Amino acid sequence: MASITITDIPDPSLLSTAEMFKAILESQKRVEATVTEQVAKIVELEKEVKDLKSQVYVLQNTVNKSEQEKRKLFVRISGVPFTEEEKSTVDGKFLARKVYDKLLFPLLTSAKAKNLIDRVPKVDNVVESCYRLRANVALTGTATPPPPIILKFCSEQLKLGVLKVKKTSMPVPSQEERDSGIVRFAIVEDLTPQAFAKLKEINREESVEKAWTVNGRIKFLVRGSNRIHTVKSVNDPLTVILANTWFCTIFKKESHWERNPKPTQKNFFVCSFVSATCFFLYFAATTPHIVFIFSAEVDYVKELKFLILNYYQ
Q1: Contact 231, 198 (CB under 8 A)
Q2: Which DSSP category does 287 fall into?
Q3: Which residue from 187, 195, 125 is spatially nearest to 158, judged by alpha carbons?
Q4: What is the pLDDT of residues 150-173, one digit of tens each?
Q5: Structural domain boundaries of the chain?
Q6: Which of 133, 136, 151, 166 has the fewest beta carbons under 10 Å from its own?
Q7: Helix (H) or strand (E) holding 266
Q8: DSSP label at 132?
Q9: CATH number for region 74-189
Q10: Residue 231 contacts by C-beta under 8 Å, 6 or more apart in sequence?
């Protein structure tokens, strides 16, 4: 690429006015050609960056999905008190028996009563492996909660049976256990770090009533709505996840259109405006020249463009 300096323009004293303007115009054309070339390179680089981000996004989702699939038989149990007998066993059989007697047997009995399982197996046919996570602090004193337990079921049916009845049939801590600081027992799916962090983030959101997981997928309810939303990717920003609930409300039959089959003129114009806005943002997000213009936009506009692309593709 040829550089352009002030020496490219001849000395005005040596040229006539017409020649001087001609030289200036030629220099201007060279500058415009250089700028056009640089703009084209910027657009090309932005496209490459966008493609790379898309590839990273897909790879992150694939890795998380694969890791979660490996955990489909695992649950995380909290609240079970630590005992000295656990120190003398290294194969986890003592801990498995304790968890089975205290929690799993009552829950499986309830699951059998509800025809979720055919029978209540013995502990060796229920628990494949069981271990307690290492505590970050000493296991002494009532202020220290017992470290959680990671347990692997022998079958997915047993795991689902336990998870389906835990809300109504979970045993409660004894008085001695409550005095030691144990409030309740809990059994949840063992999630990947990314999924667990996203679940906590969603639960902290004020507009979310509650969030939970089913087979490793995060589901949640928004306050004031009975529709269950599913998180497509734990790598999506929270703003995109919550914005998806708004799009579902408008486009997926939970909106005012379903409650009022005969929409008013105001509703018609509102939905028409929303649809037109969506198509404009989609056009802006897919047209290279407009992408370049919007290259310095604020974060929430970028996330909205990202949402539009995901929704229409």
Answers
A1: yes
A2: -
A3: 125
A4: 999 999 999 999 999 999 999 999
A5: 74-189, 193-312
A6: 136
A7: helix 265-286
A8: E
A9: 3.30.70
A10: 198, 202, 217, 218, 219, 220, 241
